[in-house]
Design a protein that fits this description.
Strand order of the largest sheet: 16-15-14-17-18-20-19
Number of domains: 3
Helix content: 25-40%
CATH architecture of the largest domain: 3-Layer(aba) Sandwich
CATH topology of the largest domain: Rossmann fold
Structural class: alpha/beta
Strand content: 25-35%
Number of strands: 20
Number of helices: 11
Largest sheet: 7 strands, mixed
Bound molecules: S-adenosyl-L-homocysteine
Distance between the termini: 64 Å
């Protein structure tokens, strides 16, 4: 059995069950791409069984902290079955959900989303790449489904030295389908959509938005970074009279427009704007526009802490503009999905935006991702999505 020996003192995070071994912690040892290695302390004490990633800064990811556990097909079947079983107990108001959320489910580098009868899967580490066949078989067996589409086309694959792959791993047929989310119907394409097809982590925040739009009587709503218009459908369901979806993706906006009709709303109540959000907010301000509610759900401005400073300026800017565009009593639902921006920093950024906009507000709610994208005690990096619901004074 090949081994990695850590430098003195570098065993602590593994002893606290954090699954990453960074390049700089390693004294010696290694193996082939994705190979299972024994990780031990400088004293030779067992720490975990891990998959080796020869090209990544995260040089190894721990599968198991149990010395007696064997990493084989049965291991993946057990972990997958456990993850699927816990989803059955979570409150998930949809036939689309995340079944495997990487490290949080003890399977670093694996993301599996279920969209009705299609599994959409991303293998993003050397370890999951190596065990792809066994993982795919276990997924089909545990879920009883027969169609599995691979979306290993995220740029994180390049950090692992892996090529981008997209296509059916099992089964075939149309990649477009319609899911149910709360009382809404939404379409997506697992081959063409962002990530694995859709942003399932915002499911409950969309519902929340429909509720507050109704509760506070918001009529004119601006949904920034709308993608396929999930928050726009929510706003219409909440009784908004005029909703604008802004995104820089034409295909996403076409779907947003289709979603308005699909859910039985008058198309005249919705406008799709193919534009840059920042420019749109500035133009709206210049034209004296005002809104009753604004959603800001931008892409990851800071993938890691190293990007935090530049990202902070970008977040602050859009939040400042949005606060200025809101009527007094209007609602701002603002998000960051950057792992590199912790919740307290996000709060400070929005506070800074408020100062610059000369606007204050009540924080009505602090929200995160849906429970099928769990955060775990041992893996703080799992807390990526955070949102604030603010009532402008
Ligand atoms: N709120 C969406 C998810 C948003 S994901 C939902 O509920 O499903 C972020 C979106 O921002 C993507 O659709 C992407 O196309 C869009 N985007 C990224 N940069 C942009 C920019 N500068 N201006 C407008 N849209 C942008």
């Amino acid at each position: 059995m090949k081994t990695i020996k850590l430098r003195p003192g570098k065993e602590r995070s593994l002893q606290r069950r954090h699954p990453w071994v960074f390049e700089g912690s390693i004294h010696k040892g290694g193996g082939d791409s994705g190979e299972t290695l024994r990780i031990e302390s400088s004293e030779g004490e067992f720490l975990g069984w891990a998959a080796f990633s020869p090209q990544s800064l995260i040089r190894a990811r721990v599968w198991s902290f149990d010395e007696n556990e064997r990493i084989d097909a049965a291991f993946f079947r057990r972990r997958i079955a456990a993850a699927v079983a816990v989803r059955q107990r979570l409150p998930i108001a949809s036939n689309a959900m995340r079944l495997i959320h990487g490290e949080a489910d003890g399977l670093p580098g694996l993301v599996v989303d279920r969209y009705d009868d299609i599994l959409s899967v991303q293998f993003s580490s050397a370890g999951t790449e190596r065990w792809k066949k066994q993982i795919a078989e276990a997924l089909l067996e545990v879920t009883g489904l027969s169609r599995l589409y691979e979306r290993s086309d995220a740029n994180v694959r390049s950090l692992e030295g892996l090529p981008e792959v997209r296509g059916w791993l099992h089964g075939e047929g149309a990649t477009e389908l319609t899911i149910r989310e709360h009382e809404w119907r939404l379409s997506l394409d697992v081959a063409e959509g962002h990530k694995t097809g859709y942003y399932l982590d915002q499911r409950d925040n969309r519902k929340k938005f429909a509720e507050v739009v109704r509760q506070y009587g918001c009529k004119k709503v601006l949904n920034c970074f709308s993608y396929t218009g999930g928050f726009s459908v929510a706003a219409l369901a909440g009784g908004a009279e005029q909703v604008t979806s802004v995104d820089s993706s034409g295909p996403a906006l076409a779907r947003a427009t289709a979603h308005v009709a699909l859910n039985g709303f008058d198309p005249a109540r919705h406008q799709a704007l193919d534009a840059d959000v920042n420019a749109t907010l500035r133009a709206a301000l210049k034209n004296g526009e005002r809104y009753d509610a604004i959603v800001l759900d931008p892409p990851k401005f800071a993938p890691t802490a190293a990007h935090a400073e530049r990202a902070a300026r970008a977040y602050k800017d859009i939040n400042r503009l949005a606060l200025m565009l809101l009527q007094p009593g209007g609602l701002l639902f603002t998000f960051s999905c950057s792992g590199g921006i912790p919740p307290d920093l996000f709060h400070k950024i929005v506070a800074g935006a408020g100062v610059d906009a000369q606007a204050d507000g009540f924080i009505l709610d602090r929200v995160g991702a849906t429970p099928d994208h769990p955060q775990t005690i041992c893996f703080p990096e799992g807390e990526y999505l955070k949102g604030l619901l603010i009532l402008k004074r």
